[in-house]
TrEMBL record:
Gene3D superfamilies cross-referenced by the UniProt entry: FAD/NAD(P)-binding domain
Protein name as it appears in the record: Flavin containing amine oxidoreductase
Species per Swiss-Prot/TrEMBL record: Aureococcus anophagefferens (Harmful bloom alga)
Secretion signal span: 1-21
InterPro entries: FAD/NAD-bd_sf, Flavin_MAO
Alphabetized UniProt keyword annotations: Signal
Superkingdom of origin organism: Eukaryota
Length: 460
C-alpha cells in the first residue's frame, strides 16, 4: 500500500533536476492542525518534505500554556467530540493519547449536542495535558523522520515555479524555495497578503480568488474588528469546587466591570493519583466574542504588548476586581454552605488569550458564512450564493488543478456545511484529508472511521 501511494504521488510531481538545498518535493506552509497533519501523512512516502512556520512554534490557534502552578491552560482550541473522527481518531487510536470528558458528568454539550472530550496526562491523576499535545508529538515525529522543519519563515509571495505545475515560495527574509507542490495552512489574513501581482494562487479562477482574498466573515464598517477572548483566573485552590461543590455550569455578568461570560468546568484543576484535588485550579471567566459581548474590551487594558495572543497578568487591579465580583456573584452559595468568602485566597494570575482580526498569523477564528453561528454578524454578500461544497472545492484547490497549490485552514470552511460549525480542528482536517486523497493519492488512514471517511471526507 505504501509503495503504491508513493508511486502515485511521484507520477504527477515534477521531476526536480538536481535537488538544491532549498528545493522541496512538497512544501507545507503553516504549522497548525491542517499543516502538521498533512506533513504527518505525507512524511512516510515523501523523500523531500518541508514544513515552514512563520512563528517560533507550531500549533497555530491551538495554544496550550503551562503556568506557574503546573496547570496546563488552553487559550485557543481545547476540546473535541468522538464523532469528530478527525481529529478524534488520530488522537485516540494513532497517537494513543488519554482523554477525559470535558464536562464532569460526561453529558451532552448543550450547544453541540454531543459529549466533548479533552486530552489528559496518561498517568492515574489524568491532569489536563493541553490540546496542543498531539501537535507537539507530530512536530517531534516530523523532525525525527528528517522532515525539514523551519521556524521564522513568513511567506510573502507565491510565484510560478521552474516547473509548470510547481511553485516558487518567497519568504520575508528574501529567501525562496522551489516546491513541486505546496499546501498553505494559513489564515485568511496571511492568504490575503499574498494577493499581489500575478500570483498563480489567484490567477486561474475569479470565484476562488474572491473567496480567498476578498470575502471577510462578519464584515463590519471600518474600524471594528471582531475579537475573541478567553480569560482564566488561577487560584491556589479551586474554591468553587472544594467549598461550594459546583462541578459544572455557566455564568454570565456582562453589564459591569469586569464582565464575565464563563464556565465552571472549563479550567484545569490539579489532582493526585486517587483523583483528589491537591492544589491550584483555574476558572474560565470569559469565553466569547466582542460581537456578542462588547464589554469584554475592558480586558484590553491588561493585554501584553506584541502580537502573541497570550497574556499572563498579575495586575493587582485586574485580579482584585475580578475576585471581588466573582465572590459577590456567589454570595448566596457561600451563605448556603456557611462559608465566609473572606477566607478564599485571591487569584494569583489571569491567563488570557486575545484573538483579534488584525493578527496576520493568529487571527480571530472565523470561518465563512459565520452568520450561521453568530446571528448578529452582517451577511457575507461576497459569498455570491456558493454553497458549502462549491466553497470548499474552490478554496482548497484555487487553481482548479492547473498548479499543485492547495489551501486548508479553519478560516476557509463554510460554517454549517456537513453540520460542522466554527471553529473546530475538524474543519481544516477534513479538507486536508480530502486533498491528500484526491491530489496525493493517499489511501484512508487505517485508524480513521470508514463511514466518516466516506461521508465526511470523500463526499466533500
Amino acid at each position: 500500500m505504501a509503495s503504491r501511494s508513493m508511486a502515485s504521488l511521484l507520477a504527477w510531481l515534477p521531476a526536480l533536476a538536481v535537488a538544491a538545498a532549498n528545493d522541496c518535493d512538497v512544501a507545507v506552509v503553516g504549522g497548525g492542525w491542517a499543516g502538521l497533519y498533512t506533513a504527518y501523512r505525507l512524511a512516510p512516502t515523501t523523500p523531500n518534505l518541508c514544513l515552514f512556520e512563520a512563528r517560533h512554534k507550531t500549533g497555530g490557534r491551538t495554544y496550550s500554556v503551562r503556568e506557574e502552578h503546573n496547570l496546563t491552560i488552553d487559550i485557543g482550541a481545547y476540546r473535541f467530540g468522538r464523532d469528530m473522527h478527525l481529529p478524534g481518531d488520530l488522537i485516540r487510536f494513532d497517537l494513543n493519547l488519554s482523554t477525559r470528558c470535558y464536562q464532569p458528568d460526561c453529558g451532552l454539550d448543550p450547544e453541540f449536542n454531543t459529549t466533548l472530550y479533552k486530552i489528559v496526562d496518561g498517568d492515574a491523576a489524568e491532569n489536563a495535558a493541553g490540546y496542543e499535545t498531539p501537535l507537539r508529538l507530530i512536530t517531534r515525529d516530523l523532525v525525527a523522520r528528517g522532515v525539514r522543519v523551519e521556524y521564522g519563515r513568513e511567506l510573502v509571495a507565491v510565484e510560478d515555479g521552474a516547473d509548470d505545475r510547481g511553485a516558487r515560495l518567497v519568504f520575508a527574509d528574501g529567501s525562496a524555495v522551489e516546491a513541486g507542490a505546496a499546501l498553505l495552512n494559513l489564515p485568511r489574513k496571511a492568504i490575503t497578503a499574498l494577493d499581489a501581482g500575478d500570483s498563480p494562487l489567484f490567477r486561474y479562477d475569479a470565484t476562488a480568488a474572491r473567496l480567498l482574498a476578498a470575502c471577510e466573515p462578519c464584515p463590519h464598517p471600518e474600524g471594528f474588528e471582531v475579537e475573541q477572548l478567553k480569560v482564566y483566573l488561577v487560584y491556589p485552590e479551586p474554591w468553587w469546587r472544594t467549598e461550594l461543590g459546583i462541578l459544572e455550569g455557566s455564568f454570565a455578568a456582562t453589564n459591569s466591570s469586569p464582565p464575565f461570560f464563563g464556565r465552571f468546568h472549563d479550567g484545569p484543576m490539579l489532582r493526585d493519583a486517587a483523583g483528589a484535588l491537591v492544589g491550584a485550579g483555574a476558572i474560565e471567566t470569559v469565553y466569547t466574542f466582542n460581537e456578542k459581548v462588547p464589554s469584554i474590551t475592558y480586558y484590553d487594558a491588561y493585554r501584553a504588548a506584541g502580537d502573541d495572543p497570550l497574556t499572563v497578568s498579575t495586575n493587582a487591579t485586574l485580579l482584585a476586581e475580578s475576585h471581588a465580583k466573582l465572590l459577590a456573584l456567589h454570595a448566596a452559595d457561600f451563605a448556603s454552605k456557611g462559608v465566609d468568602p473572606a477566607t478564599v485566597a485571591p487569584p494569583t494570575s489571569a491567563v488570557m488569550g486575545f484573538w483579534d482580526a488584525s493578527n496576520k498569523f493568529l487571527p480571530t477564528p472565523m470561518s465563512s458564512n459565520f452568520r450561521a453561528m453568530l446571528k448578529t454578524c452582517p451577511e457575507e454578500t461576497c459569498l455570491g450564493g456558493v454553497d458549502g461544497h462549491a466553497y470548499t472545492m474552490k478554496t482548497s484547490n484555487p487553481t482548479g488543478g492547473k498548479k499543485n497549490l492547495f489551501v486548508a485552514n479553519n478560516d476557509y470552511w463554510f460554517t454549517g456545511y456537513q453540520g460542522t460549525p466554527c471553529c473546530w480542528a475538524e474543519q481544516s482536517l477534513k479538507v486536508a484529508e480530502h486533498i491528500l486523497k484526491t491530489h496525493f493519492a493517499l489511501p484512508k488512514p487505517a485508524w480513521l472511521d470508514e463511514a466518516y471517511y466516506r461521508d465526511q471526507v470523500s463526499a466533500l
